[in-house]
Design a protein that fits this description.
Radius of gyration: 21 Å
Order of helices and strands: HEEEHHEEEEEEEEEEEEEEEEEHHH
Protein name: Iron-regulated ABC transporter permease protein SufD
Number of domains: 1
Strand content: 35-45%
GO biological process, one term: iron-sulfur cluster assembly
Pfam family, one: SUFBD_core
InterPro entries: Fe-S_cluster_assembly_SufBD, SUF_FeS_clus_asmbl_SufBD_core, SUF_FeS_clus_asmbl_SufBD_sf, SUF_FeS_clus_asmbl_SufD
Shape: globular
Structural class: alpha/beta
Number of strands: 20
Distance between the termini: 49 Å
């Protein structure tokens, strides 16, 4: 019987040593737990469609060098650059806001680092997010963002994740956000790349929201076609807090995002929006999980996928209503649009309910452009190609328009227009 593949020992070799001792100790502990870790296969349920796209050659085990050319990003105001997993203070514009602290992991005191070490991974199910465990064993730097109670940041904080793939290797960026009582901010993460060598980005971001905190996370994944991107986001919410997520992703050889939200305080609310487009032979896999742990919490989730050519998009959304979570209100909606007969979209919405006084709903659809609507527009003098673009854009525009940061909306729309140019080039 053929044995399951395991993580190469090359990925467990020591990374940079510029971290405080408590974080080095955590990283060492996580690394020991990864020895002989089975890699996902098609029989691994949450990697059923993605495992064949995961390519972990030994050359990717090398950490990408911290330096490199700066790529262009549509960011203004507060801006932090994480290049190849390491914070680049020289090209960052750090916010000077009373009550807001932004620190590199490498600059933390041992006391702060010990506190952070106790918090890392607390928002994630590391059994389900296997590659987040690798990040915990390999991160070389990171950002600790702390909001004191009643602190509200006036502008979005942009974190630009740059990968300079001038040689094969991997980057392991890490962010931890600790939002105090009744604090608020918008965090924008934009993933970009330059260079033509094969590389992998294994990114993890965690949020903890104290009572009444209001946090918005915006995520734009737009790296080159030589980059495998595997991301995980974990969120813990306490009483009356609100978390909004807006994710826009463009396909690649492997794109994956695991998003988990735990509603742990009564009155907590979350809203998750996502848009994914794929073309050629690209692949994108979104896995979400919302845990209603306590009564009187609300969640709303809407994801839309568009697949063209021979590409493949996946959505697996799960809502788990625990036995004590009475009066929960949860709604999930996933709509998918196929632009060619060779494209494929797999969707699996799940409800797991153990309470008896709840209001929950979920739905999923997969279809093609409506011929009647297309004929109507063409009959009104609109060229078939432009009509196809209008209908396709209308399919996702509702979600793109909800992104609360204008610069990100504009950047997403520019890239979407390029996608439409390619997808309908022969229409």
């Amino acid at each position: 019987m053929k044995s399951a593949p395991t993580l190469s020992s090359a990925f467990l070799k020591p990374a940079g040593e510029s971290l405080p001792q408590p974080l080095l100790a955590l990283r060492k502990e996580r690394g020991k737990a990864l020895v002989d870790m089975p890699l996902p296969t098609r029989k691994t349920e949450n990697w059923k469609y993605s495992s064949r796209h995961l390519k972990l050659s030994d050359e990717l085990a090398n950490s990408l060098p911290a330096g490199g050319a700066t790529t262009d990003a549509a960011a203004g105001g507060y801006r932090i650059v994480i290049r190849n997993g390491v914070v680049d203070a020289s090209t960052s514009v750090l916010p000077q806001v009373e009550g807001l602290s932004v620190q590199r992991f490498a600059d933390l005191t041992d006391e702060d680092a010990a506190e952070l070490a106790r918090s890392l991974d607390s928002t994630l199910d590391t059994r389900a997010t296997q590659m987040a465990r690798l990040n915990s064993a390999r991160f070389e730097d990171g950002l600790l963002i702390r909001l004191k109670p009643d602190t509200v940041v006036d502008q979005p904080l942009f974190v630009i994740h740059e990968v300079t793939a001038t040689a094969a290797g991997s980057a392991f960026p890490r962010i931890y956000v600790d939002a105090g009582r009744h604090s608020g901010m918008t965090l924008v993460e934009e993933f970009l790349s330059s260079g033509d060598e094969s590389a992998m980005v294994d990114a993890v971001t965690e949020f903890t929201l104290a009572d009444g905190a209001r946090i918005t996370g915006v995520r734009l994944v737009a790296e080159g076609q030589n980059i495998q991107h595997i991301g995980a986001t974990g969120v813990r919410q306490l009483r009356s807090s609100r978390f909004e997520s807006h994710c826009v992703g463009f396909g690649g050889p492997l794109r994956r995002h695991d998003l988990r939200v735990r509603l742990e305080g009564e009155g907590a609310e979350c809203k998750l929006n996502g848009v994914v487009v794929t073309q050629d032979k690209q692949h994108y896999d979104n896995h979400t999980c919302i845990d209603h742990m306590v009564p009187n919490c609300n969640s709303e989730e809407t994801y839309r996928n568009i697949a063209a050519d021979e590409s493949h998009a996946v959505f697996n959304g799960r809502i788990h209503i625990h036995k004590d979570a009475q009066k929960s209100n949860a709604n999930m909606n996933n709509k998918n649009l196929l632009l060619s007969t060779g494209a494929e979209i797999d969707t699996k919405p799940e409800l797991e309910i153990y309470a008896d006084d709840v209001k929950c709903a979920h739905g999923a659809t997969i279809g093609q452009l409506d011929d009647t609507s297309l004929f109507y527009l063409v009959s009104r003098g609109i060229a078939r190609r432009e009509a196809s673009v209008l209908l396709t854009m209308a399919f996702i525009n509702e979600l793109v328009a909800q992104i609360p940061v204008e610069q990100v909306r504009n950047s997403a729309n520019e890239r979407l227009n390029q996608f439409f140019d390619d997808a309908f080039r022969e229409a």
